[in-house]
Amino acid sequence: MRVGAVVIRIIRQLLRDKRSIALLIFAPLLVITLVWLVLDGDPYEPKIAAENIPAPLEQVLQNELEKDVVQMSESEAKEAFQKEDLDAFITIKNHVPYVLLEGSDPTANSAVMKVIQTAFSSLSDQKNIQPDVEYYYGSDKINLFDQTGSVLIGFFVFFFVFVLGGISFLRERTQGTLEKLLSTPIKRWEIVTGYLLGFGLFTIIQSFVIVTYCVYVLDIWMAGDFWQLLVVTFLLAITALALATLLSAFANNELQIMQFIPIVIIPQAFFSGIFNLETLAEWLQVLSKFMPLTYGADAIQEIMIKGKDLADLWQDLLILFGFVLLFYVLNIFALKKHRRL
């Protein structure tokens, strides 16, 4: 009888928590659907340019690709690499096929080499010829972790800052600290600014530790400047903190903060650059544009793999700053419901 009473109490408690019931049912469906959408995409079709290659080789390459083999010089190909408009360039140097890979995307690299190997194997006079392969970005020594590590840095910074920031701000409410502040003449924007700066100091320290460990201990490929990587990581951390404080205003306990993870964090992981978005449906590519981690992870990867500077990444940084500003303003309005009239 006493066991039955406990069971009934738990059931009634869960039934009253509509958010937990919804999460229990719909969150797994959401995550599985995202996995299906990402992994069930079309095969990646590489964009290849060529100059002065034999007509039979060009014809075979053309047959292997849905896109046309573009004719351009090596210097034009390098400009296209910088604009992310090309995956590989092929020409003949010293009577040997020469392949220049863009190099920053393992999916594109693999697709290019598969097409080239198939093309050479189909030509009887080229079967035993091994092309000379070079990388415009990165190196053939870069492994899978080097390629994805830059994205994972952004994801883990965003994830842990979101969790710790959301729970910390929630405790300010549940312990009555926020309510006492709101009963004073202090303005809402001053509270939001103070909390973001206060908690932000610790998120910056956390970000510094994660980045330093990944670059200098795990020895992830690092082509850019360390301090520029820190700037992007700090901005991404502040974005996560502002979002966490905003969503914590709608949570009543720490469990409900964790319930936002399958809805807010996991979808961003799928669209942050771990998987090539060009293989996905167009509407999914558009959806990724509304996620802060898309821009933060892209900027981190550009610095680490391609060695770019902050000036080259001004669009990503501006959009991230825009997210911070948006969440900051929404935080001010969210505090309004907690202020006693």
Automatic annotation (TrEMBL):
Keywords: Cell membrane, Membrane, Transmembrane, Transmembrane helix, Transport. The keyword Phosphoprotein does not apply. It is found in: Cell membrane. Residues 113-338 form the ABC transmembrane type-2 domain. Its main location: membrane. One of its GO terms (molecular function) is ABC-type transporter activity. This is ABC transporter permease. GO terms for cellular component: plasma membrane. It holds the Pfam family ABC2_membrane_3. Belongs to the ABC-2 integral membrane protein family. The chain crosses the membrane at residues 21-39, 151-170, 191-218, 230-250, 257-277, 317-335. InterPro entries: ABC-2_transporter_component, ABC2_TM, ABC2_TM_bact-type. It is a multi-pass membrane protein.
